[in-house]
């Protein structure tokens, strides 16, 4: 049986990460690395990189799956479930509250100033993470080549990330050998719930809603924003559950809230069948992630002692670094391309200060995020 104090620590840790986890999956991974590798030493750097590689190769949101993986490594199946649920729960509550306000008042709360400082803070967190990771995985010229290749391929969008990691692992293994010698549910159009709980709509729409998001979570690789085009095509164009503007606003709410971006599913579920629909959609889209990780993690632990698997993983780790580094430009671009010099200067200064705080003074990531958001809230109206 899992140790209760350890389960409590997992609960508190992932509730915290789920609450302050602004900035998308790579920021989440950087925060997790700081907590479980640097501070608590639950995993070695190599084990953490292997966990990321496993999560990137499976369908679903990688950061949520990594939380499940960490929980499993510490406290078995129960730990995996606890970590995953606690990571999702805060953002789910925030998305549901914002969805209720949206359909109640037909507007999205204006929070642009509040999040003006979030992008520079998150960018600094990812840069600091890449610097730490590079010191551990770039041990020979081949690793540099794999990292740079993964960076270029990820930025180009030619291949999905999971195929890039598989390719890097295969190259590493071959180099070592050389060295040695649908189903579619039909639902009525739904442009917003008729009541908060949504019991009446759920009795009619709950089963197909669950099945749609279960299939989405099972077969879509990449997670995060990768899943948005699929949702838009089905939810807006085919079934007309949301208008185009409502969908855009729902994606914005999903990005402005902490936690995984795929919690946009909760907004869609709320539109279809209130709170019960939001819960159904969320369970459907995340259930495959729990099953995949809890089934795959034990297999990885058994296989990682195999020589060929070790050679494969040695190539995957540099590719993970390259793929994560590729997210920096899309994240920083809105601030760097701003037509307002004051915003550009504010973003650059905040990024530099955050990076210094992380690398030189070893400040925890949650402090950097909160300071960034606070400064954005104070300075934003003045810019």
From TrEMBL:
GO terms for cellular component: plasma membrane. It is found in: Cell membrane. GO terms for molecular function: chromate transmembrane transporter activity. The keyword Cell membrane applies. The chain crosses the membrane at residues 75-102, 114-134, 146-175, 212-231, 267-300, 312-330, 342-359, 366-382. It is a multi-pass membrane protein. Keywords: Cell membrane, Membrane, Transmembrane, Transmembrane helix. Its main location: membrane. Belongs to the chromate ion transporter (CHR) (TC 2.A.51) family. This is Chromate transporter.
């Amino acid at each position: 049986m899992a140790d209760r104090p350890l389960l409590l620590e997992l609960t508190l840790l992932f509730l915290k990460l789920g609450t302050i986890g602004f900035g998308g999956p790579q920021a989440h991974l950087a925060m997790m690395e700081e907590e479980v590798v640097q501070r608590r030493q639950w995993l070695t750097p190599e084990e953490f990189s292997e966990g990321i590689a496993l999560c990137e190769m499976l369908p679903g949101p990688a950061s949520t799956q990594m939380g499940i993986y960490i929980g499993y490594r510490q406290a078995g199946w129960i730990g995996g479930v606890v970590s995953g649920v606690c990571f999702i729960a805060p953002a789910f509550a925030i998305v549901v509250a914002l969805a209720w306000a949206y359909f109640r008042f037909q507007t999205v709360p204006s929070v642009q100033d509040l999040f003006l400082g979030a992008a520079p803070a998150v960018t600094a967190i990812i840069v600091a993470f890449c610097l730490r990771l590079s010191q551990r995985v770039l041990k020979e010229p081949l690793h540099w080549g794999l990292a740079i290749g993964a960076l270029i391929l990820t930025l180009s969008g030619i291949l999905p990330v999971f195929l890039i990691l598989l390719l890097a692992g295969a190259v590493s293994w071959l180099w070592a050998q050389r060295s040695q010698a649908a189903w579619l549910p039909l639902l009525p159009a739904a442009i917003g719930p008729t009541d908060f709980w949504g019991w009446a709509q759920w009795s009619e729409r709950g089963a197909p809603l669950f099945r749609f998001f279960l299939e989405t979570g099972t077969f879509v690789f990449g997670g995060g924003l990768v899943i948005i085009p699929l949702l838009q095509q089905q939810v807006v164009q085919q079934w007309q559950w949301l208008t185009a503007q409502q969908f855009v606003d729902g994606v914005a709410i999903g990005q402005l809230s902490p936690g995984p971006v795929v919690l946009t599913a909760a907004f869609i579920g709320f539109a279809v069948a209130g709170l019960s629909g939001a819960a159904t959609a969320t369970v459907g889209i995340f259930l495959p992630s729990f099953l995949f990780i809890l089934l795959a993690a034990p297999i990885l632990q058994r296989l990682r002692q195999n020589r060929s698997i070790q050679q494969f993983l040695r190539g995957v780790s540099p590719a993970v670094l390259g793929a994560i580094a590729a997210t920096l430009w899309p994240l920083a671009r809105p601030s760097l391309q701003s037509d307002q010099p004051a915003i550009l200067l504010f973003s650059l200064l905040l990024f530099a200060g955050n990076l210094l705080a992380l690398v030189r003074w070893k400040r925890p990531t949650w402090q950097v995020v909160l300071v960034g958001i606070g400064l954005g809230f104070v300075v934003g109206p003045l810019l």
